[in-house]
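Hey, quick one: can you model this chain's 3D structure?
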Amino acid sequence: MNKICYGCGSKLQSIDKYKAGFIPEKKKDNAVYCQRCFRLIHYGENKETSTPKSISSIVNAINKDDKYVLFLVDFITLNKEIVKVFKKIKRPKTLVVSKCDIIPKSVNYQNIIKCLRDTYKIDDDISLISSYTNYGVQALLNYLYYERINEIYIVGESNSGKSTLINKMMDLTDSKLNRITTSFTLNTTLDFIRLKLNDNLTIIDSPGFVLDKKVNINVTNKNNIDKIIKPKVYQMKAGETLKLEDIYFNFTNDTNITLYMNNDLQVKKYFKSVDFDENIDVSDNVDVIIKGLGFINIKSKSKIKFKNISKDLIEIRDSLFRK
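Sure thing. Here's the predicted structure for all 323 residues.
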């Protein structure tokens, strides 16, 4: 059996049910997806079957190949650690920022791109897209076509939306290929998958990489990946505490804040006596990034005390929504 699974890229096999690519013997002749991906698509089940490929192995494989790279990053979870991975790729590339549908309508997209360039010192092309609203995806395809780019890698952190983007590209190019697995679980794609969309474009989907430093809160069973993230606005009074799942943030000054995070995170605000571990000072209009969760836009200067999160999981940047 020399076929690969369209969902995760693993070689299909009927020998070991505990290894990637397993398909029952009686189904192997007509199989398109391995048993893991089939159950993931139809029943929402997911069983980890493979150790994720390391960041270095993914980057090294791409740098050895002379192909263009689309590096996909979720606008909500974008941080300097992800940008470091992006900069390790030495091939011609574009930073593709997904979920731009959450950007306030009053903010010009070109201003966002400029802020991204200034904040993270990026000289490469930057493209904003939304696979849910279709914004920017056709423009991305047009760019590849007019630049005569026929083969590309799509790279990104696990759950950055690579499979969703590829499926959208398939739709827009009327590709006859089977759609690949999308899921709010880590490492859906276990190996490189080569997909010829049409005569003009072949995509190589790479395994999603996983950063070591990030907050791990399991909201898998509560989340619908088709939801559009909706920012949540809170007015915080001096001394008031915001609780995100089991993480506490206390604000010493009055300020308005906006959360750009998973819709299903449990959020509550109240006055409560908490022994806070550390604190940070922030200026007006900054983003407090909680690595792995998203970011909080804070409008006014304040001291923020926090508990149940280490300081190295927090990044402060000037707001991407600044004028």
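One thing worth noting: The CA atoms of residues 244 and 267 lie 5 Å apart.
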